[in-house]
Specification:
11 helices, alpha+beta, globular, single chain, Ribosomal Protein S5, domain 2
Length: 408
C-alpha cells in the first residue's frame, strides 16, 4: 500500500530589487530556498498582485514496499508564469512594452472670441506644455477583445469613459489594428485643474498605439483624428508650444516664445471647476477685447508679464468658486516682486505663478490651504517624431502621493 505525504511551505520575503525569496520554515534543509527570476516589467498593479500572490512549494514523499523511499519537489511560481506569458507576447511582436511621459499644459493667455452655432465657443490661446505630467505604461495584451486600465488614483473611470480607452478604440477604428493593451497610469496631474491632463493622456495613448503598429500613420493624421476625442487633444501633437484657435483643435505650431528654464509654481485647491458651469456663466460682452495676436507678439518680444496673461474664463470661474478668486488675490499680494505673472490656467482651478518655483509662505502656514496641490514646473517642448520626455530635474510627486499625505 503506497502512502503519500504532502507538505506545503509558503514563506516569502521580498527584497529591495523586487525579487522574491522563498525560505523553508521547517528549518531542516530539505527544501532549498528558491529565488524567483521575475522582476516587475509591467505596471504596478501587476507588481502588487505578484506581491500578494504566493509561490507554492510542494514536497511529495512516496513510500513503497517494493521501491526505496523517494522525494521530489514541485515548484509552482506565478511570477514565472507571468514572465512566460510576457515572453510569448514578445515573440509575436517587435514592441511589447512602452513607458511614456504624458505632460500637461497651461494657457499663458486664453481669449474667448465668440460663440459658435454648435454651442461651443471660439477661442484664441497660447498653449504650452510644462514639465508636470503623468507616467503611462503600455503593454500588449494577449486579449483580442478588451483593453485593461489601472491607475494609482481612486475615482478615475477605467472603462470607455476614460479618454485613454477612447483613444485606443479610435485608433483601432481608424486603422483596423487588432492590438489591445494593458495600461497603467501613474497619475501626477490633478483632475479638474485646467491643465489638460486627460487630453494629454489621450494623445499619449494614440501615439503609443501607433508605435506598437510600427508608425503606421503620420502624426498629422493622429492629430486630425484626436479632435474627435476632445478639443485640447490635438495640441499635444504640436512641438509643445502652439497658438490654438477654433474650439482649440486648430493648432499652429510656433517656436517657444518663453525661456524653457523659466520656473513656475502650480497651486490648485481641492475643489475643481466644472468646465461646463464656467462656460455657462461666461459673458462675452464683459470679457477682454484685446487682440490675442497682440498678446502673442508681446510675449514673443518681451516675455511673460501680468498684463499679457489674460484669461477670459477667470471671472466666471471665480463666480463658480469664490475661494479661487481670494486665493489668486492673496498670491498676487504676497508674491509682489516674486512672480512675473499670476493667472488661472484653462477653466481652472489651478493658479499659476510664473517666475518662481516656490509658493507664498501663507500656503504652508494657514490651515485653510493644507490640502492644496503644489508643484513646481518649467516649460518643455519635444523633438520631431519623438514623444515628450520628463526633464531629469523634475521632482514633482504624484497626485496620489500628495492626496495620501494630506490624509494623515
Amino acid at each position: 500500500m503506497t502512502a503519500s505525504h504532502f507538505f506545503c511551505s509558503r514563506h516569502i520575503n521580498y527584497s529591495s530589487d523586487n525579487t522574491s525569496k522563498i525560505s523553508n520554515p521547517l528549518g531542516n534543509g530539505s527544501l532549498r530556498p528558491y529565488v524567483s527570476s521575475y522582476k516587475s516589467r509591467g505596471f504596478s498593479s501587476f507588481q502588487n498582485k505578484c506581491r500578494n500572490s504566493r509561490t507554492h512549494l510542494v514536497k511529495a514523499t512516496s513510500d513503497s514496499s517494493k521501491h526505496e523511499r523517494k522525494q521530489v519537489e514541485v515548484v509552482y511560481n506565478l511570477d514565472e508564469k507571468l514572465n512566460r506569458l510576457a515572453d510569448e507576447v514578445d515573440m509575436n511582436a517587435g514592441l511589447s512594452r512602452l513607458s511614456l511621459f504624458s505632460p500637461c499644459k497651461i494657457n499663458v493667455f486664453l481669449r474667448i472670441t465668440g460663440k459658435r452655432p454648435d454651442g461651443f465657443h471660439d477661442l484664441a490661446s497660447l498653449f504650452h506644455v510644462i514639465s508636470l505630467g503623468d507616467k503611462i505604461k503600455f503593454s500588449l495584451s494577449p486579449s483580442k477583445s478588451k483593453d485593461r486600465l489601472s491607475t494609482n488614483v481612486p475615482g478615475i473611470p477605467l472603462d470607455e469613459r476614460n479618454l485613454i480607452i477612447k483613444a485606443l478604440n479610435l485608433y483601432r477604428k481608424k486603422t483596423g489594428s487588432d492590438k489591445f493593451f494593458w495600461v497603467h497610469v501613474d497619475k501626477r496631474v490633478p483632475t479638474g485643474a485646467g491643465l489638460g491632463g486627460g487630453s494629454s493622456n489621450a494623445a499619449t495613448a494614440l501615439w503609443a498605439a501607433n508605435q506598437f503598429s510600427g508608425g503606421a500613420v503620420t502624426e498629422k493624421e493622429l492629430q486630425e483624428w484626436s479632435g474627435e476625442i476632445g478639443s485640447d487633444v490635438p495640441f499635444f501633437f504640436s512641438n509643445g508650444a502652439a497658438y490654438c484657435t477654433g474650439r482649440g483643435e486648430i493648432v499652429e505650431d510656433i517656436p517657444s516664445p518663453v525661456p524653457l528654464d523659466l520656473p513656475m509654481v502650480l497651486i490648485k485647491p481641492p475643489e475643481a471647476c466644472s468646465t461646463a458651469e464656467v462656460y455657462k456663466r461666461f459673458r462675452l460682452d464683459v470679457s477682454s477685447s484685446v487682440d490675442p495676436l497682440t498678446l502673442l507678439e508681446k510675449i514673443s518680444k518681451n516675455g511673460i508679464s501680468q498684463d499679457v496673461c489674460v484669461n477670459d474664463l477667470e471671472p466666471p470661474a471665480f463666480e463658480v468658486l469664490p475661494s479661487l478668486k481670494r486665493l489668486k488675490q492673496r498670491i498676487v499680494a504676497a508674491g509682489r516682486g516674486k512672480y512675473d505673472a499670476v493667472f488661472m490656467s484653462g477653466s481652472g482651478s489651478t493658479i499659476v505663478g510664473v517666475g518662481s518655483p516656490d509658493p507664498p509662505q501663507f500656503i504652508y502656514d494657514e490651515e485653510d490651504y493644507k490640502d492644496v496641490f503644489l508643484s513646481e514646473a518649467t516649460f518643455i517642448t519635444r523633438r520631431d517624431q519623438q514623444w515628450y520626455t520628463e526633464p531629469s530635474s523634475s521632482n514633482a510627486s504624484s497626485f496620489a502621493d500628495q492626496s495620501s499625505s494630506q490624509c494623515h
